[in-house]
């Protein structure tokens, strides 16, 4: 197989355009380029999360997610082409079911906080949501397969769940929002006891 990248600084983008995988050129502000950039940023943030101490199964899952995000970005860069397979979404669904089953129900909204790994998972979650919005915007203007949108939606859910899992490493917990409703409920529970 030939090496695809023989030169990084080509200067072909100096005019404000970039090449897609199908050899067409589009402006760098094109919705497709924005979606590809958000997916690339998400993949980079997951790479940063992988620098943390993680349970081996979570690490393995996130490494595979990085490969799937590369496929997703490739699919976005080649209009009409399919790289993201159905089993990628099934993997996320299975991981969501597995990790959700081990977590307590949420009593209230949680803050994107806790230990560093969990906080980075929350950053990944928010970037995944932005990437999803970019893919939806692209889909409103141009043909896009359903798989990228569905994958990003499910991945952001999984990253939320993984943040909760990571906060429980070493005996930690979620960081709950101090809402007035929760405070009243806790007071009512204490009064009833």
UniProtKB/TrEMBL annotation:
Report the Pfam families cross-referenced here: Cob_adeno_trans
Its lineage opens with: Bacteria, Pseudomonadati, Pseudomonadota, Betaproteobacteria, Burkholderiales
The UniProt keywords, alphabetically, are: ATP-binding, Cobalamin biosynthesis, Nucleotide-binding, Transferase
Source organism (scientific name): Variovorax dokdonensis
Q: Which family does it belong to?
A: Belongs to the Cob(I)alamin adenosyltransferase family.
UniProt-listed PANTHER family: CORRINOID ADENOSYLTRANSFERASE, CORRINOID ADENOSYLTRANSFERASE MMAB
SUPFAM superfamilies, sorted: Cobalamin adenosyltransferase-like (SSF89028)
In the Enzyme Commission scheme, what number(s) does this protein have? 2.5.1.-
Domain Cobalamin adenosyltransferase-like per the UniProt entry, residue ranges: 8-165
Name of the protein described by the UniProt record:
Cobalamin adenosyltransferase
Q: Which reaction does it catalyse?
A: 2 cob(II)alamin + AH2 + 2 ATP = 2 adenosylcob(III)alamin + 2 triphosphate + A + 2 H(+)
Q: Name one GO molecular function term.
A: corrinoid adenosyltransferase activity
**UniProt-listed Gene3D superfamilies:** Cobalamin adenosyltransferase-like
According to the record, the residues making up region (Disordered) are 1-23
């Amino acid at each position: 197989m030939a090496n695809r990248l023989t030169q990084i600084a080509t200067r072909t983008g100096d005019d404000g355009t970039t090449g897609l995988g199908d050899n067409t050129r589009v402006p760098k502000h094109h919705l497709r380029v924005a979606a590809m950039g958000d997916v690339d940023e998400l993949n980079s943030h997951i790479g940063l999360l992988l620098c943390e101490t993680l349970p081996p199964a979570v690490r393995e899952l996130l490494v595979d997610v990085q490969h799937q995000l590369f496929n997703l970005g490739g699919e976005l860069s080649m209009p009409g082409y399919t790289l993201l397979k159905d089993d990628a979404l099934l993997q996320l669904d299975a991981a969501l079911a597995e990790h959700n089953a081990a977590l307590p129900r949420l009593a209230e909204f949680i803050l994107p906080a806790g230990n560093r790994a969990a906080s980075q998972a929350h950053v990944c979650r928010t970037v995944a949501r932005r990437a999803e919005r970019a893919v939806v915007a692209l889909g409103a203007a141009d043909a896009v397969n359903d798989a990228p949108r569905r994958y990003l939606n499910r991945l952001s859910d999984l990253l939320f769940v993984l943040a909760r899992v990571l906060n429980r490493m070493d005996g930690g917990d979620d960081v709950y929002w101090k809402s007035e409703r929760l405070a009243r409920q806790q007071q009512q529970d204490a009064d009833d006891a």
